């Protein structure tokens, strides 16, 4: 219970600023600093746990969305979640050094590709998604999510760019 509250508070704080203090995170979670340190001995351990939890939630969402929604709607919902994670990732990146960031990217890569494949396969099997795109290409298409400035235009820009990605995934009518 406390661990989950700390992770939620840390995600929110780090999305706002990579410089969020452990004291402010503990306060926001409604726990003492000792409780935070019992669960996460270092700032790095907490940031890594937030990252891993976010990636796991993305991975678990893909088959659920693919089963519950029409493929294009499922893909867009998943991409919107990925966009939210991309915004949070800016704060996480500020809190981790380059070596750790690369390790985490490598660690989650195959799972994210698998989640994207699940969604693409569902759309390709129904003819609602182009057959000539694979998960690695889709990941390249949405790479902007990690590059956008997290300013007051971020949400509108990411939504517009994801609309363009969705247009790219739509099968073309024969000429």
Keywords:
175 residues; mainly alpha; Arc Repressor Mutant, subunit A; Tetracycline Repressor, domain 2; 2 domains; 8 helices; 76% helix; elongated
Description:
The chain has 175 residues and is mainly α. It folds into two domains: 1-41, Arc Repressor Mutant, subunit A (Orthogonal Bundle); 44-169, Tetracycline Repressor, domain 2, CATH 1.10.357.10. Helix content is 76%, strand content 0%. It is built from eight helices and no strands. It has helices spanning 2-16, 22-29, 33-39, 43-68, 71-95, 98-126, 135-141, 154-169. The longest helix has 29 residues, at 98-126. The chain is elongated and about 65 Å long. The termini are far apart. The mean pLDDT is 87.
